[in-house]
Amino acid sequence: MAVTMNDVARAAGVSLKTVSNVLNDYEFIRPATRQRVQDAIAELGYEANLTARSLRSGKTHMLGLVLSDLAAPYYAELASRLMTTAERRGYRVLVEQSGALEANELGALQDPLRQLTDGLLFTPLVMGADAVVSHRGTKPVVLLGEHILGPRLDLVTMRNQDAAQALTAHLLAGGRRRIAVLGAQPGESAGSAGLRLNGYRSALEDAGVPFDPALVAPGEWRRDGGAAAVAGLLERGVPFDGVFGLNDALALGAMHELLVRGVKVPRDVAVVGFDDIDEARFSSPSLTTVAPGMDEIAERSIGLLIDRIDGLEARVDGVHAEAGFVLKIRDSAP
């Protein structure tokens, strides 16, 4: 026979209301009382009826999170921080990946499983603002990233252009003048790649260094993409004394390729990345990069989403927030 809340209340010697308060993580409960209830729950094997609780409260205390690729180190680390931040606020997070496919992004907004969540954190890379607005439904959605900048949508992002400009300026201050940039295409202006390329170009212009399209090497934002991009530059005989990988995976792949080919880092070529993933500190040499405020992104996006859920953020137009950044100067580009 299933254990009920009444059974837990009798075993703990408390009221049914007290058991309910403990299950709902009510703040003002004496620690000793809370412990008695938790001990009774564990001893009896009580399992809360989340469906019934959500019907009563109108909330599931679950959030959805849709990222494009959980194999990417940045997204994996961001997901971990978002989940930790949500847990502190009393929420759990259901995570899925879209693979940057439009059908999957649309499905994330329309899937019946969304009824299990109170709101959604979403990183669309294919859908446009109008499509997101049309299909988001009635539950709150907060976008992460910069692919969509629609004024009707809540967005939390990083200062891509400013951070890239500061990082390029650091290389220039170290005497580097031929800085290859990996992972972008000339002419891009939107999204992470375009904004970071714009920052790179702004730093060159400020220093009076001409922009050379030959130094812009496209590549997938993975380690093998960075290695292939650098190999292509070397094989074409393009001279360079600095490398800016538009994310850390590109930079780490580039650094490996340089070392394999006998190019000394940073003596011959200084290398920088972007994102400050955990691996950046432990590479050899350690990677100079940008920490783009991942903790702040997690705090602000979770906070904004919960405020929307609770009705505390009443603005009809979208809230746009940018996290700060910090340069992490390490051995690859001191």
From TrEMBL:
One Pfam family hit: LacI
Keywords: DNA-binding, Transcription, Transcription regulation
Listed InterPro entries: HTH_LacI (IPR000843), LacI/GalR-like_sensor (IPR046335), Lambda_DNA-bd_dom_sf (IPR010982), Peripla_BP_I (IPR028082)
Domain HTH lacI-type: 3-57
Keyword Transcription regulation in annotation: yes
GO molecular function: DNA-binding transcription factor activity; transcription cis-regulatory region binding
Protein name: LacI family transcriptional regulator
Originating species: Pseudarthrobacter sulfonivorans
